[in-house]
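On to my pick:
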Amino acid sequence: MKQVLVIHGGAGVIPQTFPPEKIAAYKQGLARALGKGFLVLKNGGSALDAAMNAILEFERDPLFNAGRGAVYTADETHEMDAAIMNGRTLDFGAVCTVRHVKHPIRLARAVMEQSPHLFLSADGAETFAREKGLEFVDNRFFDDAYRYQQLLEAKEAGAIVRDHDIEAAKPMGTVGAVALDASGNLAAATSTGGTTNKACGRVGDTPIPGAGTYADNRTCAVSCTGFGEEFMIKAAAYDVHARMIYQGLSLEQAARKVTFEHLEPGSGGLIALDRHGNFALPFNTPGMFRGVQTNDSEPRVNIWE
């Protein structure tokens, strides 16, 4: 059985004028996340564990907008969302607007596996996290001088922006992973700090089932990145699944139709993986941080076409 891991680190403008050392740093970050996740598959682990381990590595990396790299709200704090889904069982877990949990993806999985609920938010999510013994940090743990400068620029412009759309040498974006394990099971996981200068309490597509994250063994696993409001209103992740199961489209056909015909141009991209090991990584922006590894190919990471 084929084993595959596909990851993304955000889609947006991502100017090709980056200094070579910055490009190298992003590619190294992608390679680390890919390597951590695929090692699980290589050792016979589950798609769920592989996707989560890739996200954990992203959440440790301040280059990406998740966990340690989470961006600032308009109130100069950090609020994070995350979700994970098991394609075999359709079990789903998500959290939003958490401020003190070091690894939101761990909390999302705990919600999925140890709670009667699918989705917990804010203080309720953090109360549950304490009950389950997850690691907490002060909200200042997520601070970063560059991201704070980004916030000030966004405020001055009166804008709410994806970080990878800012013409600067350090873009960031939502992170995601989709995996296929040796048992033929699919999983998807996504984590984000949202958008710079967002209102406190704003929730994007990442934790919404079928918007930013979805997995079903019958069809595919999907993780999205871009303008969350667009992906929510279009139910983008579920739409890839729906086009496959109801219209009989291939993964590539479904993913491309959603990205280039259903979503607004410039709104973002997605990664998708089917139960046969086929994958698609379409994006309607100039670039998307992404990577792929399979059991019969070398790991590959890329930013532009």
Observations:
- Helices lie at 20-42, 47-60, 104-114, 122-131, 145-157, 228-233, 236-247, 251-262.
- The chain has one domain: 4-295.
- The chain has eight helices and twelve strands.
